[in-house]
Structures are given as structure tokens and as C-alpha cells.
């Protein structure tokens, strides 16, 4: 096999591998979005989010479990 063909196959393989990793990352984001609702401007001990339920502040972002009932 000529060197140009080897390089082409290597590049195609790397692109496919990156595509698999990209799909994995997006599914993790979807899972997190499904389990938590997010509201901005959260302050510890201050405003509550997610229909008035207590929240955890991650930086200035408020996260709490969704009500699945």
C-alpha cells in the first residue's frame, strides 16, 4: 500500500474515533439535563430554584433534582 493511502486511512480512522467520543459527550450532557434543572444567579442561602425547592450552588449556577412526580 502506498504511503498516501496509509495516511488517508489513518486520518479517516481518527475522524471516526473522534465522532464516537463526540456522541458519548453529548449523551452525558443529555443525561445531566434530564436529571437536573438549572437556574442562573443562585446564591448560597439565598434564592431557591426549581419550583422553590432547595438548591445546590455551583459557582453562580443553581442545580437541584427535578420533580419526576
From TrEMBL:
Sorted UniProt keywords: Signal
Protein source organism: Cupiennius salei
Signal peptide start-end: 1-22
Superkingdom of origin organism: Eukaryota
Name used for this protein in its record: Toxin 19 isoform S1
Amino acid at each position: 500500500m502506498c504511503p498516501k493511502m496509509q495516511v488517508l486511512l489513518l486520518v479517516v480512522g481518527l475522524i471516526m474515533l473522534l465522532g464516537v467520543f463526540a456522541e458519548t459527550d453529548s449523551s452525558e450532557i443529555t443525561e445531566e439535563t434530564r436529571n437536573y434543572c438549572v437556574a442562573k444567579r443562585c446564591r448560597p442561602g439565598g434564592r431557591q430554584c426549581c419550583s422553590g425547592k432547595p438548591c445546590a450552588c455551583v459557582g453562580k449556577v443553581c442545580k437541584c433534582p427535578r420533580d419526576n412526580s
